[in-house]
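Limitations

Structures in this collection are predictions, not experimental determinations, and the ligand pose is part of the prediction. Treat each record accordingly. The example that follows, with coenzyme A as the small molecule, is included so readers can see exactly what is and is not provided: the inputs are given verbatim, and the output is the predicted complex.
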Amino acid sequence: MNELSVRAAAAGDYDEVRALFAGAMMFDSSPTELGRRMFEPERTLVVADGPDIVGTTQALTGELSVPGALVPAAHVTGVGVKATHRRRGIMSELITRQLREVPEAIAVLWASESGIYGRFGYGAAAYGMSYEIDLHRVGPPNVRTRPGEVSELPADGAVKELAPLLRALQERRPGISGRSDLQWQQRLEDKPDDRGGKTARQILVHRDESGAVDGYALWRGKMHWIATGPANEVHLEELVAIDPAAYRALWQHLLTLDLAGTLEFGFAAVDEPLQQLITTPTALNRRLNESLWLRVTDVPRALEQRRYAVAVDLVLDVTDELIPANTGRFRLTAGETVRCELTDAPADLSLSIAELGATYLGGRHLAEFATTGRVTEHTPGALRQAGAAFSWPVAPVSLEIF
Ligand SMILES: CC(C)(COP(=O)(O)OP(=O)(O)OC[C@H]1O[C@@H](n2cnc3c(N)ncnc32)[C@H](O)[C@@H]1OP(=O)(O)O)[C@@H](O)C(=O)NCCC(=O)NCCS
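Predicted complex:
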């Protein structure tokens, strides 16, 4: 790459890395003390043009829920190239090197544009739904709740009551990233300058009969009046409930707030249970988005660390243009234990690393890719067997953009 050089960042690069990414994404951002503490310089790559940083990518350390397990996943973020240096291959150099170097067997990210990451072997592994709920049409959910079931929780000290619920959700649903103490602190930060005219964040909790929190919702309101009267906006940021009664009560509360006209929520699952509680699902105004993109960086390790819905014994012929060790025929056997190793046996299915990534969380089916020739079935029945084994009863969802 001409005179440009790639290197790992140093702790002192934080301000410049932050400024570069903020500039590329066009958000105004000053470095923060919390951001500085969360910065992982040794996991950040930068491209320097003389003394200036002109491109960066970061991999954050974190755990992701995958079918039947919780595994380390490189959480890729902060991908940015200075506008003056675009389309010279800087991002390609950074992403390729990052994928070859991360120690985790999978990497995940949210893409600003869905056209960017497929070329690097990422596959869209989780879809998310955005709701813009018409509260006048949706009607109250058909559920009964006890008065006082839902209450407010002050932000101070909230983490110790909320964090166990997120961990419990990780055991139930793939695609959920864990949060360190610092990440929780960041999640619950509520600077007035960042509210965009909305109210302060409110933390709603539901408690079971013993008083333990078994569900929470983070939301804000925004006053809005139209010619016909009140049309306030409810902005739901996150709702986590591990008990059906908690889930129903929190939604019931949010969908029936006085003066409200719409509820916006950007992180619903494709199989979001709310769809069962209301009589008019079209009033949810659902929009499907790609959320988590996933890249398998180490085929045997990645396939061994997740679980399978049914027993499977298949040879997968995988191609990977960026990571040579991933190209080859791998025998996957899953029953009581899971094994995945290189083999000389003939392939039952062939596919590229991107299809493996797209189906890794159990939300998409290999057959979907067979219809476009991206997966080829060599042994009749192999596609059905692999489809049954790779899929998972609960759809993956990612709860926040990182
Ligand atoms: C997106 C971005 C990182 C690309 O950096 P770059 O150094 O210009 O990318 P490269 O030169 O390596 O491009 C590699 C390929 O990706 C394509 N590409 C780049 N940006 C793209 C985009 N936004 N959408 C679709 N394709 C894109 C290029 O056209 C090129 O394709 P080609 O090889 O067929 O010519 C940079 O433009 C940027 O910082 N954009 C704003 C911030 C952003 O969107 N970051 C991503 C956050 S997830």
